[in-house]
Amino acid sequence: MQRVLFHETVFGPIHSRRLGTSLGVNLMPNDGKVCTFDCLYCEAGFNAQGPGTTGFPSRQAVSEALAAKLDAMKAAGQQLDVITFSGNGEPTIHPDFPAILRDTIAMRDKHFPEAKVSVLTNSTRIFSAGVAEALALADNNILKLDSAIDSTIRAIDRPTSPAFTADRVVEALGQFAHTGIIQTMMVRGEYQGVAFDNTTDAEIGALIEAYRRIRPREIMLYSLDRPTPASGLHKVPVEELRAIADRIRQATGIPVMVS
Ligand code: SF4
Which stretches of the chain score pLDDT less than 50? Predict the structure, then answer.
């Protein structure tokens, strides 16, 4: 079974063409995974591997690890473009996520005021007022919406809550109108006898309606880039992503990026 990727609370810096120099913050255990989704494409593997043994890092441990890394980068004369919350699961599950995000913004302001703070979230915890208020503080609040059709989200993202519905999430995502960034993974394939494809005409039509309701600052489309825990998944070619992006842009007037 594919296991977690991130074995540290603060990892990097990683250099990428798209993000520049990026530092990652993993608020989940360093040897296991905790998430309210169990996506077929998750680079941290399936939830079945368990939550590991290290537990969530404390607010103080995150603060100390990040301060040490930022101090070292500053002393070495390194650049920093972005601090990104991602890692072995859903960062907003951490009970101190709002306080840790505020600590991080304060440290960013002190050490690298020009750097951005980004959060990658699966949008399942935006019903918590504390989480939503904190997410609104991030420079890039990047919220997952892989489909606006329940059966497709259930097939691809596999929410752990039986109460999850796309409609409820889309409604709540409206609180981030003009500020949030919606990220949609485009993928097709079959897993355990269930076929899925969120690039069909009906799927894109439903997504367009959802994006219109949410009115995000931007939409990001992407497809598979790394090994996935499930076999039977197919990457959507970039030319196809660009054509879908054009259709969404024309229908909504919202900027759409393909990465
Ligand atoms: S929401 Fe993110 S961390 Fe959770 S299973 Fe999906 S890809 Fe993995």
Answer: none
